[in-house]
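Input sequence (221 aa), recorded before submission:
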Amino acid sequence: MMKQQTRNTLLSLSTTFIADARVRLGLPESHLDPSIRPVVPFSRMVGTAVTVLLEVADDEASADLRPMIAAYEAQSPGSMSIIAIQVPPELHSNGIFGDGAALLARRHGFVGAVVDGAVRDTHELSEMEFPVFSRTIAPGYIVGKCSTTSVAEPVVIGGRTIHQGDVIVADNDGVIVIRPEELDEVVQRAQAIKEWEEKVHNASSEGKSREEIMKIAGPMP
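Predicted structure, token format:
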């Protein structure tokens, strides 16, 4: 489980600082395709991934979402989890996450959701202030049309592979994924870049020249 102090630091950092930190550290880009957007603009979330892969059901009798429900219920309050759901393109007109899922998720410690597919009940999600990022929004009913292929196995969302336990950070600029073994160095570098940028902006607002700003701030970390 991610430490609360680390989560608090990540909540204070924009995804742009994290993306810059990855570049400076020589790590591969890990932000999702920009088509994955917040359902409610300017939402923010930080948590660890619980992954679910769905497939189109052969028929209504074979449709089974119980393993996905069990994935929610397996977490506990304080888990700071984010449900990450990969939905087959054939079902992108049917909402897999809505207010009922948000209620269930929140009860079991989830702090958000990221869905490569559709979300619905957006008015209710906004009132609940439950952060959800998705490819699209659609009112269609999905029960009876899909089954759970796997839980806790890698999924592909927005063109990036997300593993169970990966750290997900999302804000209005997008969604970025951090592997657990990268977390400490990425957070430290992102924080350093933020502090450096604050020096640059403060000096610029005081009317300093570029040369003066560089003397004050020094090189970018």
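Checked by second reader. The mean pLDDT is 95.
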